[in-house]
Amino acid sequence: MFRVFNAAFLLSILLWPFTKLFNTLFAKPYAIAKDIIHQPTKAFPVVDLLKGLSVLMVILFHIFFAVFFLFKKDPEKLQQFVETIPTWLSVVLTFDKAVDIFFMLSSFLLSFALLKVYDKKQNIHIGRFYLHRFFRIYPLFLVALLLYGLADIHKLMQDGWYSLLFIENIYSKGIIPVQWSLSIEMQFYLIMPFLLLFLAKSQRPVQWLIVFIVLSIGLRFALALQSPVIYQTHWYEFLDSSKGKVYMDTMYYVIQSRITPLLLGMLWAVLLWRYPDAKLNFSKIKLTLAWLLGLALIYLSMRFPIYYQNSLYFENFNDTLNLTVVSFHRIVFSMAILGLVLLAHFQANQTTNNLNRLQHLKNAFVNSKVWRLLSEIAYPMYFFHFPFIVLAWAIVLGTIDVKQVESIPLYYVPFAFVLAVTFTLYLSLWLNYLVEARFIRIGKQIETKWFGGHNASSDKQPIQK
Questions:
Q1: Is the pLDDT score of 142 beyond 80?
Q2: Of 408, 368, 302, which is closest to residue 61 (Cα–Cα)?
Q3: CA angle at residue 149 from 254 to 78, to 5 degrees?
Q4: Residue range 202-214, pLDDT digits in tens
Q5: CA 345, CA 279: separation in Å to the nearest integer?
Q6: Rounded distance, CA 60 to CA 381, Å?
Q7: What is the pTM of this model?
Q8: Helix locations, 23-95, DSSP H
Q9: Exposure pattern of 318-352 as b/e (b: 16+ CB <10 Å)?
């Protein structure tokens, strides 16, 4: 018995480093995820759903985008890959529209929070808003900038200040692949509190917002119209770098052409703030038709862009149709998403058993803890999924030599996607724990010290009604 005890003790000593390593590498991230999942339910569970879905959509889009990048010098191989994608599945090639959902969610959450503060204090403290944004965004952003910059120190030293000022989408191509979208948000934040203050004081905030949204739609149309190459080019020809650059710099990377979903998010917040108890008493038929219309618009808007050269769209190609679709496909998508969200929020409760069962299923889906987890770490996942997509494809293809890749079967995509999500999730849990959540807490402590209690406003330099 004594020998057994000694052997067990010796074995535990020998295994201790491995046990410690296992706990550090796996047990800790699991504990972090568990803590996130068990956080109190948010006021708007649909936000977690949309944010979680969006981050998965972005990763899947970039899984396909990696194939486009791999074959960019061999259009025939790329077209062969595209043609293996069934028509009904081609919407995955437009999953970059998830960025528009991110824009809308970010604008909604911040706008609604500031409007609630305005209700209590009759002012919005601009300094506190920017301080909160700084600690929410900058710490993790600096980590990403440094890690990505290590791959090209010269570019980091030369263009890093563009990134630091969030103007790289205008003057330079970012060091961080997805920073252009964050730069658009940061540029919008410069006007957000002032615009909200104007709307809060206005007697007709909804009408004003509709005017701003219409103007933003007109601006996107004008930007497309002023560059004929944008609407006269078949989409698959944008894979040519010169034509593609014109489109991306005009219609994709800049706030002028992407501001509409940010304003729609603000409209979402204003409607919930202005009409908190409103209800839509739609009949079952009207409710069903409204949902079908919204889903149909989402699906149709996600059928563009089209990469199939022999598609009916390009067989009957004309400038007017292409200008219209290029200008409005993202706007229709964002509006349809918002319409369904508002429909679900304002729809009066129904009493039939069938609807109750459907409501129960819907609530179970919306409130799933998976969305809570993905939503909480969406920021680091959005920043850091690119390297893991490369790693995932290298594992799936079994090589890093692109010249050896003659074709990529479509069934490889799910394997690469699962690997990329798993790797990104793992790192993001650590980054949330070590950087993101930690600096958010520090920011809140500084906010409290400088400005008083939560959501309080300072007596120093307030913006009075």
A1: yes
A2: 302
A3: 65
A4: 999 999 999 999 9
A5: 8
A6: 12
A7: 0.91
A8: 28-37, 45-70, 75-83
A9: eeeebbebbbbbbbbbbbbbbbbbbbeebbeebee
- Of 11 and 253, more confident: 253
| Residue ranges per structural domain of the chain | 35-451
Of 452 and 84, which is predicted with more confidence?
84
Can you tell me the distance from the alpha carbon of 462 to that of 465, in angstroms, rounded to the nearest whole number? Answer: 9
pLDDT band at 355 (very low <50, low <70, confident <90, very high): low
Residue 307's CB is within 10 A of a number of other CB atoms, namely 22
Q: Which tokens is 393 given?
A: 């494809």
Say what the pLDDT of residue 367 is: 83
Q: Which two tokens stand for residue 389?
A: 């997509």
Report whether 88 contacts 41 (CB < 8 A).
no
Residue 348 pLDDT greater than 70, yes or no:
no
Contacts 24+ apart (CB under 8 A), 83-88: 83/308, 84/409, 84/410, 85/410, 87/308
Handedness of CA 286, 292, 298, 303 (dihedral sign): negative
Distance CA 394, CA 391 (A): 5
Structure tokens at 408: 């990529």
The answer to whether 406 and 367 have CB atoms below 8 angstroms apart is no
Provide the token pair at 68.
């486009």
pLDDT-based confidence at 72, cuts 50/70/90?
Answer: confident
**Burial class of residue 262 (count of CB atoms within 10 Å of its CB; 0-12, 13-18, 19+):** buried
**Residue 73, SS3?**
coil
Mean pLDDT of 340-350: 84
**Mean pLDDT of the region 217-227:** 97
Give the pLDDT confidence score for residue 340 in this predicted structure.
96
Token pair of 349, please? Answer: 């409760």
Cα dist from 164 to 144, 192, 306, 437, whole Å: 11, 20, 35, 21
The burial class, CB within 10 Å (0-12 / 13-18 / 19+), for 7 is exposed
179, 253 Cβ separation under 8 angstroms: no
**DSSP state at residue 237:** G
What is the average per-residue pLDDT within 123-146?
94
Helix (H, G, I), strand (E, B), or coil: what is residue 234?
A: coil
The pLDDT value recorded for residue 165 is 94
Alpha-carbon distance of 416 to 391, in angstroms, equals 9
Q: What is the dihedral sign for C-alpha 256, 258, 263, 264?
A: positive
Q: What angle (nearest 5°) sits at the alpha carbon of residue 141, between those of residues 137 and 147?
A: 165
* Res. 356: pLDDT tops 80: no
Contact between 183 and 168 under an 8 Å Cβ cutoff? The reply is yes
Tokens 């486009």 appear where? Answer: 68
CA 131 to chain centre: 22
With the C-alpha atoms ordered 183, 189, 195, 196, is the resulting torsion angle positive or negative? positive
